[in-house]
Amino acid sequence: MYNVEKNMKLNVSFCLVLLFLMFSMVLVSSMSHAGIQLWDFEQKANEKDWEEANGDWQFKKGIFQEVSAAEDAMHQIVRGVDWEKWEDYTVSAKIRIDEGSWAGLIFRAQKDNHEYYVYYLNVPDNKTEFWVHLPGAWNTRRAVSSNIAAAKKLQKEKIEHGKWMDVKVVTKGSAFEFYINDELQGEFEDKDYEKGSVGVWCWKAKASFDDVMVEGDSVTNTLAVDPKSKLATTWSGIKTRPWKQYFLD
Asked: Which of 100, 141, 196, 225 has its CA 20 to 30 A from that of 134?
């Protein structure tokens, strides 16, 4: 009876280890296909990736800020590795409006700094908006939707001055999903721009930005794995830990 119970425990333990290894392999495989590029504004070397269009922009203590609130559609676009190839991807950033009314996230930005999509926060009306910027002047644009009503959670946790908001855009062909603090705000379609870079934006407002990240199969990965991360620690443990320790006594 003792041997039967011991064998059962060994079999269960072995199955658990196999499941863990399979899950880890799938996780690593998915990560290897989806490239990530991140700008957290902690490294001065990354500042060179940003291309100023208009406004007064400064890197300050690990965040990126527009400090003048002087112009329409003030923005900077990041020219990451192989940005011209970025097609379907997710772009996200932390955004804080310090003064004024509107700030947001650029995506599918073209070589001409006038051409891009922007999804932005609207402080006075506690809503968000989706616009296409076009060749010509900085304020040449058309609205896809200028009145995206706040979803349930955002109705309570309102957009306010001095509050950091997690903003995310998911691009899939001509379809786009917009999120604030991981809550879906709306889904829309437009066909003007098929590929392009990302950036930060504000309209006659002072705003702060942090942790701008783009992720997708078309994105060249430049994000090194942190040796102190959970994933690295897990794999290190698997490689160095004696196999017998994974089995029940």
From this structure: 100
